[in-house]
Amino acid sequence: xxxxxxPERGRLRLHLDPLLLLGLLAASGIGxxxxxxxxxxxxxxxxxxxxxxxxxxxxxxxxxxxxxxxFRIWSPWIYLAGILLLLAVLVAGDIxxxxxxxxxLGVMRFQPSEIMKLAVPMMIAxxxxxxxxxxxxxxxxxxxxxxxVPFALIVVQPDLGTALVVGCAGAFALFLAGLSWTILLGxxxxxxxxxxxFWTFGMRDYQRQRVLTFLDPESDPLGAGxxxxxxxIAIGSGGIYGKGWLNGxxxxxxxxxxxxxxFIFAAFAExxxxxxxxxxxxxxxxxIARGLYIAVCAPDTYSRLLAGTVTLIFFIYAFVNAGxxxxxxxxxxxxxxxxxxxGTSMVTIMAGFGMLMSIHSHHARRRS
Amino acid sequence: xxxxxxxxxxxxxxxxxxxxxxxxxFRRALLMLGMVLLGLLTVGGRLVYLQVLNHERFxxxxxxxxxxxxxxxxxxxxxxxxNGVLLADxxxxxxxxxxxxxxxxxxxxxxxxxxxxxLTDLDIERFRRLLQRSPPYLGVPLRFRLxxxxxxxxxxxxxxxxxxxxxxxxxxxxxxxAHLVHVVGYxxxxxxxxxxxxxxxxxRGSTHIGKIGIERSYEDVLRGRAGWQxxxxxxxxxxxxxxNREPPTPGxxxxxxxxxxxxxxxxxxxxxHTGAVVALDPRNGEVLALxxxxxxxxxxxxxxxxxxxxxxxxxxxxxxxxxxxxxGVYPPGSTIxxxxxxxxxxxxxxxxxxxxxxxxxxxxPGSSHRFRCWRRSGHGSVSMDRAIAQSCDVYFYSLAVxxxxxxxxxxxxxxxLGRPTGIDLPAEASALLPSPEWKRxxxxxxxxxxxxxxxxxxxxxxxxxxxQLAHSTSIIxxxxxxxxxxxxxxxxxxxxxxxxPEAPRAQPRVEVRNPQFWDTIKSGMIQVxxxxxxSRIRSPHYRIAGKTGTSQVFTLGQSQRYDARRLPRHxxxxxxxxxxxxxxxxxxxxxxxxxxxxGGGATAAPIARRVLDAYLLERYDDAILAEIxxxxxxxxxxxxxxx
Lengths: 368, 643
Fold this sequence. Notes:
The structure holds two protein chains of two kinds. Chain A is mostly helical. Chain A has one domain (18-367). Helix content of chain A is 70%, strand content 3%. Chain A has helices spanning 18-38, 43-64, 68-92, 112-129, 137-155, 160-177, 181-202, 205-215, 226-238, 249-252, 264-297, 301-325, 344-367, and strands spanning 94-96, 99-104, 109-110. Chain A has a three-stranded antiparallel beta sheet with strand order 1-2-3. Chain B is an alpha+beta fold. Chain B has three domains: 65-85 and 176-256, Alpha-Beta Complex (Penicillin-binding protein 2a (Domain 2)); 93-168, CATH 3.30.1390; 260-297 and 324-626, Beta-lactamase (3-Layer(aba) Sandwich), CATH 3.40.710. Chain B contains 23 helices and 23 strands. In chain B, a hairpin with a 4-residue loop joins β11 and β12 (286-293). In chain B, α10 runs antiparallel to α22 and α14 (337-346) crosses α16. The relative contact order of chain B is 0.11. Classes of the chains: A mainly alpha, B alpha+beta. Chains A and B meet through α6, α9, α10, α11 and α12 of A and α1 and α2 of B.
């Protein structure tokens, strides 16, 4: 987009953050290599994923060229549209696998809940942009409401994974905005008390089953616990150096379920071992640190909050996925960002990074 | 940090303090970065725990103790005829398998095997292709159907050839081979189209599926249900012990309504011709014999027929792969005349005694075109009985024109002409009972009066299958009682040996105004054999009612004469005959079609007579009985059979 106030208007300049881009490209490149092995060396699978990644980077580039103040102007509208779409899903969405998540637009199907992963931090950032920080209680409650409405709409679909991301997005935004420690600790206490209630009334059977299976996967080795057991075997048998690319027995002999999607981290750790796994964690840390650095350097409240939250969403994806695959966390259907086969969340993540780059490059240039 | 004062009023005008906010944000972001670091370190620590501290354990789990779920394919049910003669069973067969992982030098092993047994280049090529797609610890088949001698030769040296195994499996076998291929069909290897169609879970471990015939239509009954076992295997993939087991449920045995003796007698009667014989029990719709000639041996199809043999079958001008009884469509010719007469009676167009004068040809009013009677000199004045007995064409031309095509169409539909009879075999043809509506739709032409004339003698667009003819003859024999033709006689549980007989599939009766109409046309049909066009097959032992037919393959010009000697064989007329017997209490209805056989009375009727004799007098050639005995002798080695 062209900024009429841009002093350098007319001069072609690509708004990018080279360091962040390098990190993303490295991660997606490794992702493709791992996918080739985990997807039984299907070039078709690889091509599809490559096309998706390409599309993601195009979106990233497009958003990076858009000055951040446009994001700010759009924020409430995107949020409102997202809420309306979520309501539409509730009324007229397609049901698949027992959950009503998809909206059929004729041309394509998509999950409006995906929008909310970005719309919630945008809305909260917008809301706090002109209000003094740290926020007052009423402002905090408004911020919580901004999160709670879509969260509730997604929980009833039900889509635990996405709801978790949206909830975390709201919580991180509020925390970064300066949520006082007293409230934070109070909430933590409340949450501790609410968990037993939630367990009894708020969870579906299959979700409860997931938690139980997580606590004792060996109890159901052929059913629910099979994923975790096989995934742990895959990681553990990889050892320090790994079995080598294309040599993973767990993934290649079909012992590892969903090896190219949600459990691709296990396939990776099996073939590349502790060294590969740690390198990947370092790479993720680099991306996240760069994102937070961009947030800290941002010139205004809106950009700061948005950049910080988007970065932390990325972290949540990586942490929850790696944690679930390695048996630290319950099985929540979150993909490993830039690795897992599949497109929906990739677009969201790339769009988020696009906004990050926009925030950094536009303001950095103005400074110089 | 601020003190907890949630409801304290702060000045509304409090300004945003950018420096303070930016510092606050910096602190918070730093905290978050710490949290991120902590989270990633936790994951890293978990990796260390799994990959370093517990590496041995997980390696063992992954490599040495692969617990595998092995499918246990069910054994397929056998197929018997109505008297318990074995038509299909499973024979132990041995194949040679190589497990890549255990072979040190593959080429040397193959060379060593080549010295001992016959291995074609094709075998080896196929083996190498399969090898690339299989995990190294799984055995890959190299040669199927080892002979006893080959097994003996291999067994001696097997210990010197690591990774080489002789594996037993069950192969489908059809002891009577070609005689029943058009009924029983065969099984073959599951192909890619079938992969998409079937429930793969149920076919785990199975390699074969019913392709045609009974094997296909009763696939679900014959197949049974797959079981599984959980086995602990070592690093080489060898099962060490079975942990848990759910045995497969074997498929059910099928008993067919076919009488193999009759089936073979019919085939023998038809020998030398291409054509079909269908024999039904009119009292219940049971198919007693269903012959389509030529036939072929189904056994080579089970494990993949070689290309040359298949091409020979497929391109043979006699088209042996076609099941003529179900899929051959022929103009019914004069065999349809009794039903035409019945339609005339039902609608009051004619009565038993009304006569028509046959001068040897028929002319539509206002037209000069002559429709010829088969007897050029004409039949003179004919009543219904004589019209059927002598097959007078002019009588039926006139009847057809007077009644009209619409009424015929409605009436004949009740006899399942022009639509599948619903027999329990796949891919039955509908054939064609034409109507003006059909002609408009398909040919974009109106129905002409001339079309009705040729329809009257079962020519023109009218097409039927041999099965439909036998079926409609059954309905006449039973005076309207209507049963769906079926091949399934009973289902036998292989465990308990309890047989569940299949009930007749009764359909709504064909009703006529006056039940005596049935007797009228039946009396016409008895006169066909007792003084009419088929008098040569009259039997001293029982009374046969029948109807001859000769259906034209092509239309003669106005002045031409049909002369079989001057026509190439593929243009010669088809010979047809339908019959039921004994007249008083019919127990069998037959339809015979001899392709390019000439006259129905001369060629087809004697074949029908032989079939009727065999069945009603139980007169079977010793040669046939001996062949059945020889072919199914092996069945006695299935010692669980009571026979």
